Amino acid sequence: MNESSVRAVGWARSLPMDHGVKAARDWAREHLDALGWTATAPETVDAVLLTVSELVTNAHLHAHSDAQLIMALDQHCLHLAVHDASAVLPTPRDPGTDAVGGRGMLLVDALADTWEAHPCPHGKTIVACFRIPGDGDPEH
Predict the structure, then answer these.
(1) Domains annotated on the chain, with CATH
(2) Histidine kinase/HSP90-like ATPase domain location, by residue (predicted)?
(3) 119: which DSSP letter?
(4) 89 by DSSP, 3-state: which?
């Protein structure tokens, strides 16, 4: 394989609304465990799992939709994508000090190295990226 080839591995799971956020976290943790990150990068694992929780919760609660969760690992990043059926793109907002909710995307913004939202023909996909622990390349 030449140097310009992309090497990646990925996993996908559909999460109906009646399968809670815990199922999404448990599934993601299984794959992070298999990568060895639980032992070598527990802070990154915590950030990924909290992001999974927030994005799947948003799909179920705000989009009133099933969620499709995809994790793909390339040479530099773990890409975490959650697709739902709502076309409304998220925007981080200041919920104020008295608000019970409204902090999900602020958390994602703080936890992920980058994130972006993409409109799709039947909803949207939110992609959060996490640099591979120990990868010193800040460009990816």
Answers:
(1) 9-92+103-131 (3.30.565.10)
(2) 21-128
(3) E
(4) coil
